UniProtKB/TrEMBL annotation:
A GO biological-process term: carbohydrate derivative biosynthetic process
Keywords: Glycosyltransferase, Transferase
The name this protein goes by in its record: D-inositol 3-phosphate glycosyltransferase
Domain Glycosyl transferase family: from-to ranges: 225-366
Domain Glycosyltransferase subfamily 4-like N-terminal: from-to ranges: 31-210
Domain of life (superkingdom): Bacteria
Keyword Glycosyltransferase part of the UniProt annotation: yes
Any one GO MF annotation of this record: glycosyltransferase activity
Length: 404
């Protein structure tokens, strides 16, 4: 990683506000963890007085330019580069890779930032990192990527998939080597990245959440509503939850399953629902606005997530901030959030019987035990406060040492 100059303190004695460029291959209106993190980070930094510029693909190839967009209650400057739809995916847009450095030169010349924060090493962040490195502008990189997040959309044979992933990680290493610091949401994700591309010093920094935005309902009530929120893609394994709900239906006649989010697997999941005889128990809500999303958490009784590719899982943190017990796959980052037997349960990935058993334990828990799980979720999410996340990134941007 390349050492670079630290911005000078403001003459008043405190730090001056920074001009920050955030490069994001996915951003609003996309609905996924990386996009949500980039939005909250950018808005949080703007709320602290920094001049934040987001560089991301346009929605529609012709709708490019520089816009003021209202994100998370803040006005942000968003540079929308000409975006192209990736048709194997239901919403993914990208910038032609061979144009990324050209766009980076234009943005960096116009904005003259103190620091660049790359949210993806694949296209936009890759171009920004290389040009910023040439110009001596410090770069902080955050990795949100796992192979499972990509392979479903390459349309390549499995053997070529492996070749593409290997080349992509090699290129990622070259990009990360040009960065002042490399971060990722959890210690597990940091260890994964260090082992995958042979780098060290990856810093785990939570994506963060503002728990004030969520409304826990701690009043006693009957428990029957299972909830999933997220993209409907293969690595989320929502069909595992559907099968578990079907197993529980005979003994828990009031059980229902709310699915919030869109994705390329929705039709397949609707077919699963019909095959399992769950049409009257499962509701596909599609993509919803923020108010509807928060209401979905408040009405639910347990959050279920069978994903095997979560580097942190913002939706799980949102569920916890809403006072929900969580049942999740014992894979990657979910064990960092779910304290087995305390704020919910972990189940063996893909094991329908195990998931059904853990959901049963939550939904049939005594009022005292259920309230204990709710309170444990609320306590567990405290360490993921967004203000701590913003403090840490500000220090990285300025080249200051982090707290031990």
């Amino acid at each position: 990683m390349t050492p670079t100059a630290t911005p000078e303190p403001h003459p008043s004695g405190g730090h001056r506000p920074l001009t920050i460029v955030i490069g994001a291959d996915t951003f609003a209106p996309d609905v996924n963890g990386a996009a949500r993190f980039a939005e909250r980070l950018a808005a949080g930094l703007a709320g602290r007085g920094h001049d934040v510029h987001v560089v991301t693909p346009s929605v529609g190839h012709r709708n490019h330019g520089v816009f003021t967009e209202h994100i998370e209650d803040q006005d942000l400057t968003v540079h929308r580069l000409p975006g192209v739809r990736w048709y194997p995916h239901d919403w993914l847009r990208f910038v032609w890779p061979w144009r990324s450095k050209h766009y980076a030169r234009k943005v960096l010349s116009a904005v003259k930032p103190d620091v660049v924060h790359s949210q993806s090493h694949i296209v936009i962040g890759r171009g920004l990192t290389r040009i910023a490195h040439q110009r001596g502008i410090p770069v902080v990189a955050t990795n949100h990527v796992m192979a499972e997040n990509i392979l479903d959309f390459t349309t390549l044979p499995p053997l070529l998939d492996k070749v593409v992933v290997k080349l992509a990680w090699e290129d990622a290493k070259r990009t990360f080597d040009m960065s002042r610091a490399v971060t990722t949401p959890t210690r597990k994700a940091a260890e994964f990245l260090e082992a995958t591309i042979d780098i060290d010093g990856v810093i785990p920094i939570s994506c963060g959440i503002d728990k004030r935005n969520y409304t826990p309902d701690l009043a006693p009530r009957a428990h029957s509503r299972v909830l999933f929120v997220g993209r409907l893609t293969t690595e989320k394994h929502v069909e595992v939850v559907l099968q578990a709900v079907a197993k529980l239906a005979p003994e828990l006649p009031d059980i229902t399953f709310d699915i919030v989010g869109g994705g390329d697997q929705r039709r397949a999941l609707e077919q699963w629902t019909q095959k399992l005889g769950l049409n009257d128990r499962v509701t596909f809500h599609g993509r919803v606005d923020e108010a509807e999303l928060r209401a979905s958490y408040s009405k639910a009784d347990v959050f279920a997530i069978a994903s095997i590719a979560e580097l942190q899982s913002i939706v799980t943190m949102e569920a916890m901030a809403s006072g929900l017990p969580v049942v999740g796959a014992n894979a990657v980052a979910l064990p960092h959030l779910i304290n087995d037997g305390v704020n919910g349960y972990l189940f063996e990935p893909g094991d329908v019987d195990d998931l059904a058993d853990k959901l049963r334990r939550v939904l049939t828990a005594s009022p005292e035990d259920y309230l204990g799980m709710q309170q444990a979720s609320l306590q567990g999410v405290e360490i993921h406060d967004i203000e701590k996340t913003l403090d840490t990134f500000e220090k990285l941007y300025r080249g200051e040492p982090l707290d031990a």
